[in-house]
Amino acid sequence: MHLPDSLKRYTTSYLFIIPAVLMFAVFSIYPFYKVFELSIYEWDGISSAMRYVGFGNFIEAFTSSIWWQSVRNAGIITLLALTVQNGLALLLAVIVDKEIKGNNFYRVVFYLPPVLSGIVVGLIWNWIYDGNYGLLNHFLTTVGLGSYAKAWLSDPNTALFAVALIHMWQGFGWGFIILLAGLQSIPRELYEAARVDGAGSRMIFFKITVPFMIPVFFLVSILTILGTMQIYAIIVSTTGGGPGYHTEVPITRILAAMVDSSRFGYACSLGVIFGMVLLLSLIHI
Asked: Which domains occur in the chain, in start order?
């Protein structure tokens, strides 16, 4: 039977996308379905006995103050990353985008923290923050501010912000690279024409740079939210979620329910709620 050329083209096109669709279904859709299925059972993850509890796990999660505190902690770190971290990344990208001496060197240096292991970064900053022989306290004592020295990661008032600083230090390089690439994609002729017309640096930035960079800002914001809300390695290697849940984040709470309490069903319900929180966050921006 002879098939029309248009049908052949459509058939060929769909054949090419079938592998991608199958991979998405197997590694994304099916796991999400299984997580939701397990979330309505009470299960220890080992035995074959699974007790149906309906939405009991979800009700327990929604009424858990520790869970919502972990979401709040991740939200605070994310807010700081969206503002301070990305603001610093943009500032450095604008500076390096200029024809300054050694700009290639700065590109390499600023990109080094993101490629380091989160565990390694956490251990390094553990030493910096240490209350007894930490580098930060030593510096404060040297400059006459020894009264401000403290155990930064053990103090409930400073632990979350200390962890947030570590995360921002490690993560700003990603935003820096993406923002720098966006800046370099803007035609230089526009800047030259604006200067000829008498535009100042501020006007050039807000009238040319910002409009061209809006899609890049949007991309960086999405990556920042996804990356920061899923922070894990730095928490584990510094505070472990303490002191007293003050640095607990959703991923550590889910793993605690799964590994420490052997409540796989409850952990899956937390995962479903966390996924919905991430989805709503992305829709909001």
From this structure: 32-63+251-285 (no CATH), 68-248 (1.10.3720.10)
Distance in angstroms (rounded) separating the CA atoms of residues 102 and 145:
35
Can you tell me the distance from the alpha carbon of 61 to that of 71, in angstroms, rounded to the nearest whole number? 12
Place of tokens 């909001």: 284
Is the pLDDT at 3 greater than 60, yes or no? no
Taken in order 177, 174, 123, 239, the sign of the CA dihedral is positive
Whether the Cβ atoms of residue 131 and residue 41 lie closer than 8 Å to each other: no
Q: What whole-number distance in Å separates Cα of residue 121 and Cα of residue 173?
A: 14
Q: Distance (Å, rounded) from C-alpha 78 to C-alpha 99?
A: 32
Q: With beta carbons less than 8 A apart as the criterion, state whether 210 and 147 touch.
A: no
Half-sphere exposure of 253 (CA within 13 A, CB side): 28
Helix (H) / strand (E) element for 52: namely strand 51-52
Is the whole model's pTM more than 0.90, yes or no? Answer: no
Strands 41-42 and 51-52: antiparallel
Query: Residue 10 is which amino acid?
Result: Y
* pLDDT at res. 5: 62
Alpha carbons 244 and 66: distance in angstroms, whole number? 10
Q: At what angle do helices 210-229 and 86-97 cross, to 10 degrees?
A: 140
CB within 8 Å of 234: residues ≥ 6 apart: 118, 121, 122, 125, 163, 166, 167, 170
User: What's the average model confidence in pLDDT over 252-258?
Assistant: 91
The SS3 call for residue 101 is coil
